[in-house]
């Protein structure tokens, strides 16, 4: 099968996409913001052959040489990141050449202008190519030689290039020092992670990995493959000619199979392409996929590495986390090899700052100076960015404060060093059911692969889907806790299906309830062999993502375990799992590392900047006090009659940007024990008013008070409100009972506060309550949703069209439930188009039209005190009753099809009734002839 070997030239749309994605995978801490190269650095371009037979390639290279007349110097080979080329590392090469090194850059096979197919750092191909480059250096007089065919050489690279440095040192003992950055230990565990197993050992970021299983890292894998699968220039020329475009003749030997393969696989080798396609379609780790990934992983050959190793890893990296560097450090140090570890604030999800970049670049240069030139300066220490508490509270993309570096003498737990210190943080929480939705959607959003900086700009926000997660929380911390590494915890999990895909994460929750997810990192868990009995769950050891984060005093640690994450492949079958802490006194074991704090560069300027910021903050604070004092009083004031007036609208208006005013100057109040009917035609503003009441949208003007407190989004007082608005929202694959339990569990409140049996009695479904909701009628769904709104017996109950789908007996029963509910001192708001039901159910009415209130009062006040009345008397008494009524001033009476009707014309009903009774006439019925519907239509017509 032929392979196109031309320069990759993506189509315009693909080119724009790759312009965004390339820096994410190619960029490394050493390869940006390099200093201007010395003017006397010379370059030589060459195409170097490597491989043999069908695997033979030509590598496009550039050699960077120090100034003329310099003595022979050690060499450094710089490898680029995935999707890059030799041009990606040119600036760094010039900087190293300026330090006196002979630097060789190259485009790996399948990239840039090199030929061949991408083998994913396969030892048979890319690693053999590296040895071929070292052979070239062994022939040069300007490179220091340690022996015949043995140049003194170091290798550095980031991500794809970092793995090549590790593998090269394992397979070619001529390599004297390496500096791999943000790279992998096991490509298998990186792309199919499952952080399940025994709690880790002595090192800070030791991460458990389940054998033979994992959760497929779908989005990151797709980005990787997309960069290598872009059609090459030759293929695009071929396709253009075949289609008759650009006046290019179509060749006669176009092979459809070759074209299809080239379009789907791009410049990947057939073996790698097949592995990706199998993973993307099946999302399971098969032995065939594992064989390809394991071959490209340093994990299996670390015991061969004798070259001193500087491992640089980023704390903002959802592709290759700190645990990958931890595993590399343990494996290499076990041989007695010199290992230093540096963590920095950046990674595949966020670039390093210019200051960090300069420091890391110098760190690599010092490492090569020490091990290629024999100079002092580089040590086998451990460095990490320590939060100061002065920065942001854990936003994604940056360590808090991030202005100081902590250095320890050794990476804890390596080769006999003291193990990392761990602190136990006690967690609490009950057994909680969680749902895996059908199709795996909607899915939780934690971080967008490669776009951590964008997530940081949005405040580090995440999205957890209600019902899909269980949470366990610590008490507020008495002192700040700096977590440096991977925390561990034990859970108890059960599932009817015996397996579960879960995602564990550790949130930082501030006193105001704001939750942030450090670095946006999650720990995927692929669980099998689970107990199906929630009463006898399976214990599961979990390693959380390795982070560097300061949890301030007064904050809490929240462990969240969810069923979905959009970055991963998810089960498509719906399922319900039960999650709890393994023991009543379960603790979260968090690693902590002590060391000396290194002064940051420009400390004096930093303090001046801080002083300026403090001064600005004080000015802003004063301005806020002066300008916002009146508004703050309005927003924070608690109305003294709040308990007697559960709901109050005061001049509420909701206008939209297009000029449409949905609600205008709406004012009314509802008192305790009332059942208020909210009436109005379509478009009257009823639903908008209810959505503002529930805190779902904000009013443009005015105030809504619930029990005296402003009803703002997220206001704690809204916990006293139960609502059913705009659809049932039930999960169709669960039973009615499971829906009720899951809804209450999602509130995080104790199960005994749910009053579940009372709510189930309201539903009135009997045995049907345990059938899947998808088999319910509309009326049955409606009853479960109303019961759900009544869980916890809220003090204020808001129902939108509660009788939709109910038959007359059910409507009658619902009427009695609402009346009796209000009789307990609670308050009910009902919006409905069934005016007769409002008339018989509600005590008070607010009528709206075109966003405005047009009437308010009791039902009787709206209908009218006088007017017509319908009487029920015996047939023998009818004529006498007519005579008595017409004896009253202005009253007329007569027979109608409905019965005896009297037009009172202002005479009070009580006076008319008393006259009949005084005349000895038995009255069985005495009701207003004018219905609420008549009054409503009249009012709306008038409006």
Automatic annotation (TrEMBL):
Keyword Signal recorded: yes
Annotated InterPro entries: AAA+_ATPase (IPR003593), AB_hydrolase_fold (IPR029058), ABC_transporter-like_ATP-bd (IPR003439), ABC_transporter-like_CS (IPR017871), Galactose-bd-like_sf (IPR008979), P-loop_NTPase (IPR027417), Xaa-Pro-like_dom (IPR000383), Xaa-Pro_dipept_C (IPR013736)
Gene Ontology molecular function terms on file: ATP binding; ATP hydrolysis activity; dipeptidyl-peptidase activity
Domain (ABC transporter): residue spans on this chain: 647-875
TM ranges: 606-627
Domain of life according to the entry: Bacteria
The keyword Plastid belongs to this UniProt entry's keyword annotation: no
Keywords annotated in UniProt: ATP-binding, Hydrolase, Membrane, Nucleotide-binding, Signal, Transmembrane, Transmembrane helix, Transport
Signal peptide limits: 1-38
Matching SMART domains: AAA, PepX_C
One Pfam family cited in the UniProt record for this chain: ABC_tran
Family to which the UniProt record says this protein belongs: Belongs to the ABC transporter superfamily.
Name of the protein this chain belongs to: ABC-2 type transport system ATP-binding protein
Lineage: Bacteria, Bacillati, Actinomycetota, Actinomycetes, Geodermatophilales
């Amino acid at each position: 099968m032929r392979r196109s070997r031309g320069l990759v030239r993506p189509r315009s749309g693909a080119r724009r996409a790759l312009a965004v994605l390339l820096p994410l995978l190619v960029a490394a801490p050493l390869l940006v913001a390099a200093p201007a190269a010395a003017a006397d650095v010379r370059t030589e371009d060459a195409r170097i052959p490597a491989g043999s037979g069908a695997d033979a390639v030509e590598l496009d290279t550039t050699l960077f040489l120090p100034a003329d007349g310099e003595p022979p110097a050690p060499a450094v080979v710089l490898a680029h990141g995935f999707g890059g080329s030799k041009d990606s590392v040119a600036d760094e090469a010039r900087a190293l050449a300026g330090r006196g090194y002979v630097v060789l850059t190259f485009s790996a096979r399948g990239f840039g202008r090199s030929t061949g197919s991408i083998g994913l750092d396969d030892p048979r191909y890319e690693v053999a190519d590296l040895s071929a480059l070292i052979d070239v250096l062994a022939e040069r007089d300007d490179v220091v030689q340690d022996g015949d065919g043995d140049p003194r050489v170091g290798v550095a690279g980031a991500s794809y290039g970092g793995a090549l440095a590790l593998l090269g040192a394992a397979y070619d003992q001529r390599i004297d020092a390496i500096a791999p950055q943000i790279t992998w230990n096991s490509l298998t565990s990186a792309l199919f992670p499952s952080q399940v197993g025994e709690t880790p050992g002595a090192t800070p970021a030791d991460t458990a990995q389940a054998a033979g299983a994992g959760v497929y890292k779908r989005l990151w894998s797709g980005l990787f493959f997309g960069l290598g699968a872009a059609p090459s220039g030759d293929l695009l020329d071929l396709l253009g000619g075949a289609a008759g475009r650009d006046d290019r003749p179509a060749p006669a030997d176009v092979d459809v199979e070759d074209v299809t393969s080239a379009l789907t696989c791009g410049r990947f080798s057939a073996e790698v392409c097949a592995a990706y396609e199998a993973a993307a379609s099946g999302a399971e780790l098969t032995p065939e996929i594992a064989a390809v990934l394991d071959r490209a992983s340093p994990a299996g050959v670390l015991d061969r590495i004798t070259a001193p190793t500087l491992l640089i890893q980023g704390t903002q990296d959802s592709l290759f986390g700190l645990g990958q560097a931890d595993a590399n450090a343990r494996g290499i140090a076990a041989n007695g090899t010199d290992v230093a570890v540096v963590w920095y604030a950046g990674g595949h999800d966020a670039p390093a700052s210019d200051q960090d970049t300069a420091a890391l670049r110098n760190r690599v240069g010092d490492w090569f100076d020490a091990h290629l030139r024999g100079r002092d300066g580089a040590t086998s220490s451990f460095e990490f960015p320590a939060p100061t508490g002065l920065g942001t509270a854990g936003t994604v993309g940056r360590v808090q404060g991030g202005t100081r570096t902590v250095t320890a003498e050794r990476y804890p737990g390596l080769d006999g060093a003291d193990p990392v210190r761990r602190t136990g943080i006690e967690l609490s929480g009950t057994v909680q059911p969680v749902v895996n939705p059908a199709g795996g959607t909607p899915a939780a959003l934690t971080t967008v692969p490669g776009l951590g900086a964008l997530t940081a700009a949005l405040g580090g926000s995440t999205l957890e889907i209600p019902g899909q997660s269980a949470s366990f929380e610590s008490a507020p911390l008495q002192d700040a806790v700096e977590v440096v590494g991977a925390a561990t915890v034990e859970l108890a999990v059960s599932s009817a299906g015996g397996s579960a895909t879960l995602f564990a994460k550790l949130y930082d929750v501030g006193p105001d309830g704001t939750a942030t997810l450090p670095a946006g990192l999650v720990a995927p868990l692929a669980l099998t062999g689970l107990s199906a009995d929630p009463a006898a769950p399976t214990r599961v050891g979990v390693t959380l993502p390795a982070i560097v984060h300061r949890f301030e005093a007064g904050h809490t640690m929240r462990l969240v375990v969810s069923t979905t994450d959009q970055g991963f492949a998810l089960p498509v079958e719906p399922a319900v799992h039960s999650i709890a802490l393994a023991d009543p006194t379960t603790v979260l074991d968090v690693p902590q590392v002590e060391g000396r704090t290194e002064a940051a560069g420009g400390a004096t300027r930093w303090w001046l900047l801080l002083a300026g910021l403090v001064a600005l903050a004080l000015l802003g604070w004063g301005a806020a006090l002066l300008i916002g004092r009146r508004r703050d009083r309005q927003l924070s004031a608690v109305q003294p009659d709040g308990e007697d007036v559960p709901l109050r609208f005061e001049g509420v208006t909701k206008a939209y940007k297009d000029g449409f005013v949905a609600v205008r100057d709406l004012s009314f109040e509802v008192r305790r024990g009332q059942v208020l009917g909210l009436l109005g035609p379509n478009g009257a503003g009823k639903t908008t008013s209810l959505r503002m009441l529930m805190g779902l949208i904000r009013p443009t003007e005015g105030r809504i008070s619930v029990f005296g407190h402003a009803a703002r989004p997220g206001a704690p007082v809204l916990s006293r409100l139960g609502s059913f608005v705009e659809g049932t929202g039930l999960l169709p694959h669960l039973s009615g009972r499971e829906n009720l339990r899951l809804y209450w569990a999602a509130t995080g409140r104790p199960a005994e506060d749910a009053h579940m049996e009372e709510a189930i009695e309201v539903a009135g479904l009997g045995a049907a309550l345990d059938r899947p909701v998808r088999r319910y009628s509309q009326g049955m769904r409606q009853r479960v949703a109303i019961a759900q709104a009544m869980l916890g017996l809220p003090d204020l109950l808001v129902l939108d069209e509660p009788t939709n789908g109910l038959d007359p007996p059910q409507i009658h029963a619902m009427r009695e439930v609402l009346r009796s509910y209000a009789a307990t001192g609670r308050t009910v708001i009902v919006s409905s188009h069934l005016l007769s039901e409002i008339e018989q159910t509600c005590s008070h009415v607010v009528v709206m039209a075109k966003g405005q209130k047009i009437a308010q009062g009791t039902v009787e006040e709206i209908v009218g005190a006088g007017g017509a009345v319908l009487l029920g008397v015996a047939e023998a008494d009818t004529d006498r009753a007519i005579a008595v009524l017409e004896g009253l001033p202005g009253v007329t009476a007569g027979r109608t099809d409905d019965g005896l009707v009297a037009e009172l014309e202002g005479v009070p009903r009580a006076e008319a009734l008393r006259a009949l009774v005084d005349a000895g006439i038995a009255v069985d019925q005495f009701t207003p002839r004018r219905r609420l519907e008549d009054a409503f239509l009249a009012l709306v017509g008038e409006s």
